[in-house]
Design goal:
Length: 206
């Protein structure tokens, strides 16, 4: 089957963009990456693609898909013929959906927010974000002590959705040292063929 070229509008320092680019690589799909700065997201050209002015956005021929988790689902259903990354079993699908919700909730408002406050000097409640992150990491560590991946016996899009901001939690002054099972899980994701890391940001000065 021949598919139209894929274009990803993203930002290399964005964990939301990273999860999509990582999945494109894991699927072995050719794509064009367009680094999309905050200023360029306010142009008429970009707002015609995503009126909310947010990244990432994927274009696939005439199809436009916004929101990182929605893009993961779209790619899995369209390009993963064997459904390895988004299996069909209802229980597994439910587990994946739960972790996609956690990625959009606790991950975003915990480690992702702490990182943004510390690295990019944005306004926000750092202590609240760190508290959310600690609660999440304790939960994940207990969960991953009993299984290798978040939603299934093999990696799924749930793992990709959560990976980057957990891996970069130390940039928000959140230590991963107490969470051995989480660190082992990060290692398993990083061992996947075609894995690429999200670039590190300058760590906060003390």
């Amino acid at each position: 089957m021949t598919h139209s070229p894929l274009t990803l509008y993203g930002l290399k320092l964005s964990g939301h963009s990273h999860r999509v680019e990582l999945f494109l690589r894991l699927l072995g799909l050719p794509y064009e990456y367009l680094e999309t700065s905050p200023a360029s997201r306010q142009t008429d050209e970009f707002l015609a693609i995503n009126p909310l002015g947010q990244i990432p956005v994927l274009t696939d021929g005439g199809q436009v898909v916004a929101d990182s988790n929605a893009i993961l689902v779209y790619l899995a259903l369209n390009y993963d013929q064997k459904r390895r990354w988004y299996p069909t079993e209802p229980t597994v699908v439910a587990h994946i959906q739960r972790w996609l919700s956690i990625a959009a909730g606790e991950v975003r408002y915990g480690p992702a927010t702490a990182r943004v406050i510390q690295v990019f000097k944005r306004n926000g409640d750092l202590k609240a974000a760190q508290t959310t992150a600690s609660r999440l990491l304790r939960f994940m560590d207990t969960h991953l002590a009993a299984q290798n991946f978040l939603a299934h016996t093999t990696p799924t899009i749930a793992d990709l959705a959560c990976y980057a901001y957990i891996a970069h939690a130390p940039e928000g002054e959140i230590s991963l040292e107490p969470y051995a099972s989480v660190r082992a899980w990060l290692g398993r994701i990083e061992a996947l063929p075609e894995f690429i890391p999200m670039p590190g940001s300058p760590l906060p000065e003390h």
